[in-house]
Amino acid sequence: MTTLASDSLDILHVSKRYAQRGASLAVLDDVSLHVRAGEFVTIVGASGCGKSTLLRLIAGLDTDYAGEIRAGDEPVRDTSLQRGIVFQDHRLFPWLTVAQNVEAALRNAPLDALAKRRAVAEHIALVGLNGFEHAYPNQLSGGMAQRVAIARGLVNRPRVLLLDEPFGALDAQTRARMQNELLRIWEQERITMVLVTHDVDEAVYLGDRVVTMAPRPGRIERIVDVALPRPRRRDSPEFARLRDTVLADFDDREPPDDGGSGIGAKRIEAAAAHPIGAWRLAW
């Protein structure tokens, strides 16, 4: 398998509002960020700060926003095979095997049947699931199912991989293993990765830079460079100092009022992000 090409990302003065039942809520406010090609950036923030919304905009799943997002030299106007995405819920089709779930992402790929089979085999091997090609999702552990989701996100050879709290539903031990697996894949493939999480430890462990977001409306609070060698030691004083630096952005302050709508930011964000009738495959 050859090393993938990667794209830079430019998020330029992006703002996003949701309207529902007469209420209007600013979810993102003037967010600007440059992600270098091949960089691993983590975005951390409390629930409702708009970090998952921002990832959806980068993926092209939602184009109703102010500002501009560019992947490489191209403006983001729709979904693209050049931007893969992995969600917290693996979203595997229960009636398909591991190999068939990965191949489903190649539905619109300009490859013949043999090339698709080779790509599927390569990416199943990449995530360490050789021997499980014919297993069904209900025969897999949570960590194994997420490996399939990562293989599916990579199989189109995207230039950017977006990860929306991909390990949030896993137990602590499996989560640590999956973090190391993701780093192994990133170090091998060197594609641009952007991961959102609410776990500060995870953000510092994985990221070249950690972006902290403040809520209501979502905005960038701080960007912290993580100048620690890999593999990183979570018990090192340097790691602890960086983690404390990031944690300093989170305190007990109440976020600004939502304008008296009576509808919380997270509820509006979730409802507007998944309206009935608007569901579609990212590939």
The top-level CATH class of the domain at 9-82 and 158-273 is Alpha Beta
Instruction: Note the beta-strand portion.
Output: 15-25%
Helix content: 25-40%
- Spans of 5+ residues with little confidence (pLDDT < 50)? 253-283
Structure commentary:
- The chain has 283 residues and is an alpha/beta fold.
- It has a domain at 9-82 and 158-273: 3-Layer(aba) Sandwich (Rossmann fold).
- It contains 8 helices and 10 strands.
- The protein has helices at 51-59, 98-104, 113-126, 142-154, 172-189, 200-206, 237-247, 265-273; strands at 9-20, 23-35, 40-44, 66-71, 74-75, 83-86, 160-164, 192-197, 209-214, 219-225.
- The strands form 2 sheets. It has a 6-stranded mixed sheet with strand order 6-7-8-3-9-10, sandwiched between helices. Strands 2-1-4-5 form a 4-stranded antiparallel sheet, covered by helices on one side.
- The relative contact order is 0.21.
- Mean pLDDT is 87; it is low at 253-283.
Core attributes:
single chain; 283 residues; 4-stranded antiparallel beta sheet; 8 helices; Rossmann fold; alpha/beta; 6-stranded mixed beta sheet
Secondary structure elements and pairings:
Blueprint: E1 9-20, E2 23-35, E3 40-44, H1 51-59, E4 66-71, E5 74-75, E6 83-86, H2 98-104, H3 113-126, H4 142-154, E7 160-164, H5 172-189, E8 192-197, H6 200-206, E9 209-214, E10 219-225, H7 237-247, H8 265-273
Parallel strand pairs: 3-8, 3-9, 6-7, 7-8
Antiparallel strand pairs: 1-2, 1-4, 4-5, 9-10
Helix pairs in contact: 2-3, 2-4, 3-4, 6-7
